[in-house]
Each structure stands twice: as C-alpha cells, then as structure tokens.
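Archive entry: two folds, one per protein. Generate the first.
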Amino acid sequence: MQKLFAVAAAVALAGSLACGKSASEKQAEQAAAEMQKAAEAATKASETAGQDVAKGMQDFAKAMSGMAGALGAVDGKTVEPVSFQALQTTLPEVSGWEMDKPRGERMTAPVPFAQTEAQYTKGGSRIEVKVVDSGSAPLLIAPWSMMLAAGFSRETSEGYEKAITVNGQPAFEKWNSDSKNGELNILVDKRFLVSIEGDDLADTKVLHEVAGKMDFGKFASLK
C-alpha cells in the first residue's frame, strides 16, 4: 500500500510539473526528486518484509521529509503534540449551525500526533472541522505538501483543486460541483493541519466563513 501511494503521488507530482513551468519550478522539481526517493524507499521497504522493514520505513520517512522540506512545508524540527483537549478550544462556534460533541485522541507512537474534530449540521448540509497537531512531523505533513505549493492548481470536469492562502497561512481548496462537496485544508504555523469539509453545499464560501471564525493566532499559544 505504501509503495502504491508513493508511486501514485510521484506520478501526480510529475503530471503537475508537465502542465507548465512557473517561478516555483525549481522548488517543485526538487520536491519531485524527493518524492521519487520516497517511492523507491517504499518499494524497498515492501521488498524487505521479514528482513529489515524498519530500515526501509526509516528511509521512506526520510525521503518524505525531504519532499516536504523542499516545498517549504516543514523546517525539520519536530515537537511533542499538545493534548486533544487543548485542540478542542480551537473549534469555532458557527452561527446557524448546530455543533455536535467534539471528539479527540492523542497518540505517542509510532508517529506522535493529537487531533480533535466536530460535525456541524444545518438542514441537509454537513460540515466537519478537524484540527491535527502534527508536531511538525514531515510524514504527516508531506501528503499535503504538493497541493500547498504556490501556483498549484488542477481543474477537471467535476471541479477543481488549487493552492491558496487563508489568513496568511498556506492552504488548498477542493470543490466537486457534481456532488456539491468541498474542502478547505490549512497548514497553520507549519504544524497544525486544519481540515474543513462540507457536503451538500452551494459553494465553498461557507467553508471560508468557518475558517474565518477560527483564531489561528491562538494555535501558537498551545505550543
């Protein structure tokens, strides 16, 4: 599975580069090279079952870290995640939407992280807000790295994906016009992963309204 994920991500990244060059081409090319390393490391890890799996996965994690670093998503310093109870204080109150009881968890190994999430409903529409403290671990941030890269965009007959900024933080927005589903994903302080997903929406405007209710400056005080 890890092999397939890494190879697919490498292909997707290569495809985005083929769409045209930009001012960030050098950065993207370096990220593509790092992703290729990750794919090779994942392949090696899958082939060493019963031999040196730990070493193979360490190489994979290192390569993913290099890719995330190439795109500026991480600075190489990891920290201990805060409690999920602390993260729950960042969940917003949204006028007109009913918020259910927040859920949360914290894990210490193999990759430490903490997360909280809550659902909001209004009629037939639903929004889910999730906040993850990655501790700046590249393995958690890397899957977002390509789409957070400045200039990234992808459009299909069903919708689009594009890199944007939200309150000064790197983010990417996704919209499916057929299913009326949208996502707004924000990386706060190169550490906190904020995902706002909605179903049965008219557009992504409400997702931005929810993000606007969140105090990103408060995240720094949780560290």
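Generate the second and append.
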Amino acid sequence: MKYVDLNATVNGVTGVISPQSYLDLLPELGAALPVGARAFAADVDHYDFVGERCVKDLQLARIDGPDNGDLTLFFRHNCWKHEEDLLIRYEGVTRFAVETAEDEALPGPVVLDEILPHPNGCTHEFAFTSGSLNITCRDLYASWIETDCPDKPKD
C-alpha cells in the first residue's frame, strides 16, 4: 500500500489501520482514475469501518479468471457487519498477483484496499490478514449483492 497505512499511530495508539492519507489525496487521485474505479474508490462508505459497504472484514470467496483479460472477485459478507456480498469485475487485466499463507487457498479477511491511477488504467491492491492481492487493469466495476442474514437482529 502506498497511502493506506496498515500500521499507523493515531492519538498515541500504534498499530491502527488508517486510510486518512489516501482519503486526503483521493480527490486528486480520483480525477485520474477510470470511471468505474473512481466510483468505487470515492464511495462514501468504502472506508467507513462501521459501514455495511466498507470492504474491511469481507472474505474473498472466489476468483474467476483471469480469462481473456477479464477477472472477477467475489467477496462474501459476514452477517455481524455486512448484509451484502461484493462482486468486482476487472476489465483489461495486465497483472494479477495473489499471495496467501502457505496453508490457505485464498487470503482473508480483507484488512483494507487501495485503488491508484496507472498508465493502463488503475491498480487495485488488497491487504488481507493473511496475504495480499494486486491487480492492474483498464477499469473495474463493483456491485453489492443483497443477501440474507436470518440471525442478524433487526433494528
């Protein structure tokens, strides 16, 4: 991660996850991002740690591709925080790298992500509790998919 700090010191507490430097630069960075990437990165809930549409704590459940330059990531919700799954479609993928712990097929859950401009479109980097994922692509499109959380108390 270039701007998202996974080991920040905030109010004297060390080891805090802080996207603040990234958020401060996002208006400038966003202007250089492709349209789909910009919409996902600039979503007001994206970095709201208590928000239902924050990527933090989602579990990567499936990777489809890369196939003919396209890739799809499917993230599973957890009913204690999220009520929706997240599907991200990547177009024009030119780089895809995933690192996991030795005994895991997929990394997870998500700690945080960062989307940056790239000459070929954008890069999307995820930090997981046990690995990382990096993608360079022409653009990406994120969709939240409604799910059922039968055990979650209703307000």
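Annotation attached to the second fold: The beta strands are 5-10, 13-18, 59-67, 70-76, 84-91, 95-100, 110-118, 121-128, 131-137, 139-146. The chain has a mean pLDDT of 89.
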